[in-house]
Amino acid sequence: MNALNFIGGVFVEAHDGETLTNINPATGEEIGRIARSNKADVEAAVQASRLAQNEWSALTLLERADWLDRLADGLEQRKEELAQRESKDTGKPLALARRVDAQRSIDNFRFFANFAREQEPEVFEMADATNVVHRKPIGTVGLITPWNLPLYLLSWKVAPALLMGNTIVAKPSEMTPLTANLLCEVASDIGLPSGVLNVVHGYGPEVGQAILEHPSIRAISFTGGTATGRHVAATAAPKFKKLSLELGGKNATIILDDANLDAAVEGAVRAGFTNGGQVCLCGSRILVHQSIADQFTTKLVESVNSMMCGAPEDASTHIGALISMEHLQKVESYIELGLEEGGTVLTGGTRAMTGQVGPTQDGAYLRPTIIDGLDPSARTSTEEIFGPVVTLHRFDSDEQAIQIANATEYGLAGSIWSTDTERAHALAQKIETGIVWVNTWLHRDLRTPFGGVKNSGVGREGGAWSLGFFSEPLNVCIKHD
Ligand code: TXE
Questions:
Q1: How far apart (Å, rounded) are the C-alpha atoms in residues 108 and 275?
Q2: 298-320 pLDDT tens trace
Q3: Based on the domain organization, do 290 and 407 belong to the same domain?
Q4: Residue 266 falls in the annotated catalytic set
Q5: Ligand 1 within 6 A of 277 CB?
């Protein structure tokens, strides 16, 4: 299955005819070829978007909301195919791709369509004048997205960007192009006006960089690593482009002394190992109160040992393959580092497999891993690993838990487990982060702000925050006569 570019409503090869190989990380086998685009392809995509811009922005908000519903309907009709492609491209369990990636991609379009219908005019009355705020499109916007939740994260940006009257030049990760193209196939099938949505594939420094630099692309919404995010900002900021950066995380799962132990173990495992730990919101550091640490640790190790790690299509698989063999090696290097820094591996750290459908030896499989005994300031405890690896830390007081939680360069998310929600709510406000869940994890109301502080990014997306980012407000003040 190849991935061509989608420009001006048609699927085309890259301008130079170059291609990349797309690998299924669960088997090591080639899936197909990907267009390897560059500046010329971005130029073509921008031209196509500019030709479509006036007609698209002339539609009303509600007319564009209807288009989002049509995209959702089209994805819904192909939901199983969407999940199959996502699982093949990423190595994630098919069950997870159905439940999370496919469903949330559809939900993203439906949510913003309905959210648009709830919007009220923004009018501010003065004694002698009326202010009316108009939300105007930015124009052509650049969307650059990562490999961990490919269509889930791309649709999270495409939906509000289209809703607010913008046209799009999007670049998915070169590791996971397939579901972006399924969205383009749906767009083509429903007759989305040509040039409204354009997708160019290829390497970040080649085609991603061209998007960052193009003078007609006036806003960049980026999700990916902090290192790349720093480069994105350095390139786009001097050109005064609007920037939304959703970057890495090293989030704390904090288990207070009064937590419900079974719920906390289940929550810590979900937060730590969903998608093989390849989610920026994952709880990769587990902080547990000294008084319950032994009991909690025993249950946690038991629960992680029972996780099935194997072929994505196997219904009993909890953890599939990581995104690539080199990412697996990067994660393994952190386990090595953890041992060098004085940690003890309580379970995992090997490529030993479980699961009925035995994966091939070429799959990027790694058993879920718990490292205990590390200093909270160790590199393994503070750097983003982005794999099925958690570090375990004990604390004596709520204050110490907060101090440890805040002791990283990141500030994206976290969770607190306690039977006293008032106590947890008060503690949550002391964590330097963008989102804190209490007695749950990854429970999402799409109206709420999503994003982080410190090296986890700049800005928020979600609900009104997305409408705000993907528009330019114009205030008209009319003096009463
Ligand atoms: O992200 P990258 P990747 C973290 C995690 C992971 C690391 C790298 O630590 O190990 O980031 O993952 C494009 N100009 N997260 O490789 O490299 C690139 O092609 C323009 C957290 O996915 O940042 C891809 O489309 N674009 C994150 C996108 O940027 C460039 C989820 C992301 O790639 C570019 C994923 C350049 N110079 C990884 N270089 C989260 N917050 O969810 C790369 N790109």
A1: 19
A2: 999 999 999 999 999 999 999 99
A3: yes
A4: no
A5: no
